[in-house]
Every structure is written in C-alpha cells, then in structure tokens.
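EI: anyone free to look at a 178-residue chain?
SC: sure, send it
EI:
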Amino acid sequence: MEFIQKNQIFDKIFGIKGHTQLIQRSSEFLRFLIGEGTLSTAELETVWSSTRKGDAETRLATYKVLSDIALHFHTTHLNYLIEKISEIAPEEIVPEEIDLAYELNKQLPKSAGFAKKVLGFYWNIITDTNEQYTAEISELTLTKFSDILRSWDYKDDRLEYLHTALENIEKVGMKMLG
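SC: here you go
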C-alpha cells in the first residue's frame, strides 16, 4: 500500500490523467486491494471521481469495473457507492448507474440493510412526479425494482411498497377531484 500511495497509482489509473484502457484493466488490482482489506474510502473516492470526468467512455468503463468486482466489496464500499449513485442529478442518470445499483444489491443479504437503500433509490425515481428522468431510465428502474422485490426474501417489502403506491394513487385521485 505504501508503494501504491508513494507512486500515486490510483491517480494514474483513475485521476485526471488516467486512461480508459487502464481503468478497463484495473479489476484485478482493485480486487486484490479489497481482499487485502486496504481499499479505503479515499481510494474509492478516486475511483468514483473517474465517473464524473465528463468522458462517457471513462464513465462506462469505471461502472463496468465496479460491477465486475461488486462481489468482493465490503459493506462500507457498497454503502459509499449507493450514496454516490443516489447523489447524481436526475438528468445525468444513465442506465449503467441503474444497473450498477442492481449488481451491488445482489452481493449482500437482505439483513445487511443495503437493499433498502437500493430500493429507496429506485423508488425515488419511480415515484418522481416532476418527470425529471427519461422514459428509458424510468422503465429500467421499474424493471430492476420489480426484479429485486420478486425474491421471496422481500415479501414483506412488496406489501409495504404496494401500500405506499396505493396511498399515492389515492392522494392523486383526491387532488384531481378536489
């Protein structure tokens, strides 16, 4: 880790001067660091920052790497990533971010509480009344949301979301009548 920090390896791969080819080949490097327990939030922030560069190719390459190594992330890494995904402005959301949240969710048991965060992220998109999201994003989100809730583990959550949806329908109906 000292060598990595001294030689600014993260910055060389994921920083401003990083290159898409390096990012595409970084899965094993990140997997090793996770396995050794040395991937800190600061380094994960450097990885995440490559998704915000504005370069679509770099952004997508980073999402691909994160999805590929999702199985190896610790709970703190997963929580950090879902927080970052949730902070993205509605008009900037791309399908790969919806997919990444879904892939990250598959890695933890329901008891870890991570699914609630992912479902909450999806629910906010689904119930957006300002129509800030594209039809593609809304449709993909609904599909992923439904896929998660189909699991037997989420039986109680299905009822909770159904009740909330019915309450929302009732509120909209009352506004239309009144």
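EI: The chain has one domain: 2-147.
SC: 👍
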